Amino acid sequence: MKPIAKSAKLANVSYDIRGPVLDKARAMEEEGQKIIKLNIGNVAAFGLEPPDEIVQDMIRNLPSAAGYTDSKGLFAPRKAVVHYCQEKLIRGVGIDDVYLGNGASELIQMSMQALLNDGDELLIPSPDFPLYTAVVGLSGGRPVHYICDEQSGWTPDIADIRSKITPRTRGIIVCNPNNPTGALYPNEVLLEIIELARQHQLIVFSDEIYDKTLYDGNVHTSMASLADDVLFVTFNGLSKNYRSCGYRAGWMVVSGEKRHARDYIEGLNMLASLRLCSNTPGQLAIQTALGGYQSIKDLVAPTGRLCRQRDLAYDLLTQIPGVSVVKPKAALYMFPRLDPKIYPIADDQQFAYELLAEEKVLIVQGTGFNWNAPDHFRLVFLPNIDDLQEAVGRIERFLAQYRKRHSV
């Protein structure tokens, strides 16, 4: 029997680069049709630009950015990340514990490749950001999804996590603030996850890319600040908080109990060296971003653009019969539920396809995030107020027609 190509393992999780819904959207655009895209958190596409001081610093430094850097990255931005860890109360982080990457995505993949052998298991939230499931499979591991409970504000179900730990479990991924739900986890839940990691000697992988995109005065706690006797790998970057997706500037920090992780850290160092280094212009943005004015605070304030758009999307969606939404506390997304009694959806990818074809609105079906039922979808609330109101109005119109077609 021939081995299965690694690309085949991505067939059901790579929602942003393939599939009939995206193919249909591209074809419609080629025909000149205008689509309202609510499918991806590409903030620049919605007129949310990076701080000017970051752009200007990159321009000024670009003439000296043509060479390779140290495989882990330039000293100054790594030192800035160390200082940021101190602000987040993560103890014991030195310059050698920081890795810069082409976005957090590259570093997530690197962290899995250094860890997993064939058959090793990694706990991943459901719903998840599909990258996690994909890279675990591509690294030879087995993704095991634990449930996040919608009735509890999409927080992880600790009992479900505990029930899925086996002798092959190597670690747990925690996405906080969360994509796709917009949840922000309370410290009590984080501490319970840490205790499970402590008992079973698991590595905690904490994705904190939205740690400053917070609403209603909420405060984010970095998991690595809550314990010293567990190994933490923390991911962050400029893409979302600093509206710099295309700069591909991210970082990974290894902290906590590192004495028994020498082989793992050696693997990380080897993989960092194999890719030579991350892009230098992106590295040059990090120090200025972290040390400059934090304009994200203006956007998430009650009168800020992101907060107003979140509130509008929530209000409009929850007025639609049979639609319920947990109001996001953070990030750029919401994950509405369609009552199966009112919307008997058998195939949510087909549902998304029909919405696109009929109303020219592009969303992502819930099963694309490894959710276990065809009763949710994800949307971004990044379009400006007028476009967002138009988009949700079209969704409401489509759902009204759906109810008529499927009424008993």
List the helices and strands and how they pair.
Blueprint: H1 20-30, E1 36-37, H2 52-61, H3 75-87, E2 98-102, H4 103-115, E3 121-126, H5 130-138, E4 142-149, E5 155-156, H6 158-163, E6 169-175, H7 187-200, E7 203-207, E8 231-237, E9 249-256, H8 262-274, H9 280-291, H10 296-300, H11 305-318, E10 323-324, E11 333-334, E12 337-338, H12 348-359, E13 361-362, E14 364-365, E15 377-380, H13 385-405
Parallel strand pairs: 1-13, 3-4, 3-6, 6-7, 7-8
Antiparallel strand pairs: 2-9, 4-5, 8-9, 10-12, 11-15, 14-15
Family: Belongs to the class-I pyridoxal-phosphate-dependent aminotransferase family.
Domain Aminotransferase class I/classII large: 34-395
Protein name: alanine transaminase
Rough outline: globular
SS-based structural class?
A: alpha/beta
Strands side by side in the biggest sheet: 2-9-8-7-6-3-4-5
Query: Can you give the mean pLDDT?
Result: 93
How much helicity do the residues have? 25-40%
Kindly estimate the percentage of residues that lie in beta strands according to DSSP.
15-25%
What key attributes describe this structure?
eight-stranded mixed beta sheet; globular; three-stranded antiparallel beta sheet; alpha/beta; 408 residues
